[in-house]
Amino acid sequence: MASRLSDPILTWEQVRYQNSMFWRTPVAAFFTLFFPLFFLVLFAVMFGNDRIDIAGRGSFTVAQFYAPSLAVFGAVSATYTNLAIGTAIARDEGILKRFRGTPLRAWSYLGGRIGSGVWIASIAVVAMLVVGAVAYDLHVRVETIPAAIVTFIIGVSCFAALGLAVAGLAPTGDSAPAVANATILPLAFISDVFLPLDDPPRWLEVIGNVFPLKHFVRAFQDVFSPVTTDLGWRWGHLAVMIVWGLIGLGLALKFFAWEPRASSGGRRRRRG
Amino acid sequence: MSAISISGLVKRYGDLEAVAGLSLDVAEGEVFALLGPNGAGKTTTVEILEGYRSRDAGEVSVLGEDPATAGRGFRDRIGIVLQSSGIDRELAVSEAIDLFGKMYPTRRPTADVLEIVGLVEKADARVKTLSGGQRRRLDLALGIVGEPDLLFLDEPTTGFDPSARRASWRLIDGLRSLGTTILLTTHYMDEAQNLADRVAVMVGGGIVAEGSPDDLGGRATGLVAIRFPLPDGVGIGDLPAPFSAATVERGMACLDVTDPAAPLNQLTGWALERGVDLSNLTVNRPTLEDVYLELTGSEDTNG
User: Fold this and answer.
1) What predicted TM-score, i.e. pTM, was given to this entire model?
2) Is-contact A87 A97, C-beta < 8 A?
3) By the CB < 8 Å criterion, does B90 face chain A?
4) Between A and B, how many residue pairs show a Cβ–Cβ distance under 8 A?
5) Cβ(A148)–Cβ(A128) under 8 Å?
């Protein structure tokens, strides 16, 4: 028997393939990467470059708070939103079904999607932090970098799992963008992604606390916060994201489908 | 050994029995066509053979394995061309062939695949720029890149213009000569006639006839139809003797005979004598389409 490429290499090929599909779809690249950067610039214009002096720590711009939260928003777009929409559309178009008929392992395909999502998320975060540091004097403390990396990995894993769960639950590829955006955008407003809410009603705060986005934002913000004096580990926030990640994984495994739903009218389906 | 062996296959969707006790054998190296109207259960049957669907009863063996439980080694040896499987619009043709080829232990070089399916000039084109026929050829390319022993073709030329269809037939014929076993579904009779070594007609989840395209439904021993326009003022009674049994439909005299030699001889002699024009005379064996329409109980619209 002739040799086959090993599964890790095939998975790597899938990451590369998904990645090139992302860059060839400018609208996805725009929303995931450019949109959060645009907010960074917009907020800087709105709030000016007023500085806050913290005794013993130095002076900071407000970008010190919202660059990390916008970085999280980019990371969540790259994983949750893009995986939910991309996977549901690929299912509806019969792309998943085609892969299912090949010797490719199921986890290689999904690994390609997730790996590409995480790679793009890391580009979104690094781009945000670099622009923040260069243009808005964002300070990064070397001691907190391990906490930043672990928080990022747990956060994107959680949202990738939830994205695949939404892909499985969305009845059609057409409905996936609506479901993904209708969940993540309102949540972003009550999860302090853009601006911390000024004295929100209790119920809004509770909703924000239940879902994982606020925990991702808070944990990542704290890593960069000028008032943080420790190494930036926020175990409580990380634990909530791990729980949500497991819920997402369970739902994804239960509802994931390789074939278009019978109800999806997008593509011709005949039984002859 | 049979490439495909099915006995007593049953598949139900709720109360509907989509496949009702189907039995079938396809030999290695054979090109087998499954004919039948929409809803006959062709796609369901083929998807069970491909491993996409479970079955409710019956024995199925494909390349010696049960597709319901077969693993990766099975998928290494089959190629699947579905009716409706998508491909990323932004992928280039050669990239797609590379991507899929890498999954198989044995693979045809991308350049060879492009050559076989006639997409050499489109190698660098994105999928979104391809015509429907070109996209279908890419489907075929992805089905054969792993050098399958068995290729499933679900309605490979539906929606093609006649010249594209003929080009695809040549291509499939080429695969046959490489020893690939091919199971194709189609509802084009001429396609089955041109490609298949054997055909089976499926109706209501079962096979109603099976054989070579030339013998199907007793076609080889069937009657021959002689037809010609009845001249004005000529009645059946005026025709030579064998034609007293002829029927008249819309001005055409029709006679079904087992051996047309004698009646034709008398008819032409009679026509020469009387100066009757027989330029619209036809002598036909029933076509595969006639047999098919009869078997499937479809309305014969030829009149």
Assistant:
1) 0.85
2) no
3) yes
4) 92
5) no
